[in-house]
Design goal:
Number of strands: 2
Largest sheet: 2 strands, antiparallel
Structural class: mainly alpha
Distance between the termini: 21 Å
Shape: globular
């Protein structure tokens, strides 16, 4: 595992190198470059030592440990610039690092920070969005019971060969869309720094915005909206559409679901909140995709609208995308399973085979999917309860937990206790890596400690 963690450190080192190169290219705040480059060489040196260890194939349990430890390494190392440059307390630096890498966007600091740190935060979101897709596919590959759910969406052909092809396809698609978005925004905004910043925070559906979203020109707003929707679609389906002209995306359940939910909530805001139709569609898209860009003042919305925002963010975007939430496919599959079960136990019809998207689903997959949704909702309830016990208003507590777990990042609260920061870090992490792997990791960790 040490060899593989060395590779992770190489990836972490890019988070220090990228903002340095941007600062050099755009000629701003060169006084901070030495700090970033020092961290880069430190990280590369540690990686060089770890890569000397012999590489071996990880066992199933070790793979879970590897994924969790990799994310923790990211969180720790990526908090260092906050400490060294902004002089943040370790807990605040760690919170900000977790928030960026999980593409959540919650903040304990304002945006009045050096430009190099703004680019650093944006890059953390970008690499976090990419990492969650690649690492999640890698993590689940040895487990047939989980992987068969991917068969339903044509994500798997074979384990090893399929994994390599998928990773390459995702990387290529992610880089391609990033480049195209940057060109579009550069033409629209005419500012390299601003275009690069919003490119990185858009394609990752991260939602960081160092200026008021209303200050962007209208064309940029529409471009950002379109690309958040694109980024919330399964990246393998996007790959087929973009590079193979495969129009099956038009029949995809999640793609249709995203458009349907955006339209529904947009008209709801337009009719019941009397919000401009364009702003309604923009804000609706940023909720469904969990990008979290703010177009309107959510503090002025009715409780019903706030509830819908939390509900739609909990549903989230597409499977295998950078969007958070339970995912539309899981919700669709859950209702198919529910109808199948009700029909099966009725006297009217004898149904023995469950099919979702023309694919046969075993009872194990159905149970796993149901458990995931139950755990997801249970975690939200538990977190909300804990925050209310510590003095938060119920609505605010639910907004904090849902914003963290779904990576929506809506923030109407300012001051947080250290306990709340730690709790939200857990929820951001749990929501980003899809809960079950974290529970398996904790279970195995407890078993190991019990043996000791």
């Amino acid at each position: 595992m040490i060899h593989q963690l060395g590779i992770i450190l190489v990836l972490i080192s890019t988070t220090y190198l990228f903002p340095s190169l941007v600062a050099i290219a755009l000629e701003f705040e060169k006084e901070y470059i030495s700090t970033f480059l020092s961290l880069f060489f430190l990280c590369i040196s540690l990686a060089g030592i770890m890569l000397r260890f012999k590489e071996r194939e990880l066992k199933a349990v070790e793979l879970f440990f590897f994924v969790i430890i990799s994310w923790v390494l990211f969180f720790i190392f990526c908090s260092l610039p906050y400490i060294l440059i902004l002089n943040l307390k370790p807990i605040d630096a760690f919170f900000q690092s977790v928030s960026c890498l999980t593409t959540t966007g919650l903040r304990v600091i304002d945006y009045n920070i050096p430009k190099i740190m703004l680019i650093y935060e944006a890059y953390l979101q970008w690499i976090g969005g990419l990492s969650i897709i690649i690492m999640f596919l890698t993590m689940i590959s040895p487990f047939p019971s989980i992987t068969r759910l991917h068969f339903l969406m044509e994500l798997k052909k074979s384990f090893e060969r399929g994994l390599i092809i998928q990773s390459q396809s995702i990387l290529f698609t992610y880089f391609y869309l990033t480049f195209i978005l940057f060109i579009f925004l550069l033409i629209s905004e005419g500012d390299i720094f601003r275009s690069l910043y919003f490119t990185l925070t858009t394609i990752s559906t991260g939602g960081l915005s160092f200026i008021e979203f209303s200050n962007l020109n209208d064309i940029s707003k529409y471009i950002i909206c379109i690309f958040t929707i694109i980024a919330s679609i399964n990246f393998l389906i996007l790959y087929k559409f973009v590079f193979k002209r495969d129009l099956s995306i038009l029949k995809d359940v999640e793609f249709r679901g995203i458009l349907l939910l955006i339209t529904f909530f947009a008209f709801f805001l337009y009719i019941f909140e009397d919000i401009n139709i364009v702003e309604s569609f923009l804000q609706s898209a940023f909720v469904i995709t969990t990008a979290g860009f703010l177009v309107i003042d959510i503090g002025s919305l009715s409780p019903t609208s706030i509830f819908l925002i939390l509900l739609l963010a909990t549903i989230g975007g597409g499977y295998g995308s950078t969007a958070g939430g339970i995912k539309i496919f899981r919700i669709y599959a859950f209702f198919k399973i529910l109808l199948w079960y009700l029909e099966r136990i009725s006297e009217e019809r004898k149904i023995t085979v469950l099919k979702i998207s023309s694919r046969r689903v075993e009872s194990e997959e159905a149970l796993l999917l149901t458990i995931f949704i139950a755990l997801y909702i249970l975690l939200i309830i538990l977190g909300t309860t804990v925050l209310t016990l510590f003095g938060r208003d119920l609505n605010e507590a639910m907004l904090m937990i849902v914003s963290a777990q779904t990576t929506l990042g809506f923030q109407t609260f300012e001051h947080m206790s250290n306990f709340e920061k730690i709790l939200l870090c857990f929820y951001m992490f749990a929501g980003r890596i899809e809960i079950i792997p974290l529970f398996i990791f904790i279970r195995n960790l407890v078993k190991i400690r019990a043996l000791v």
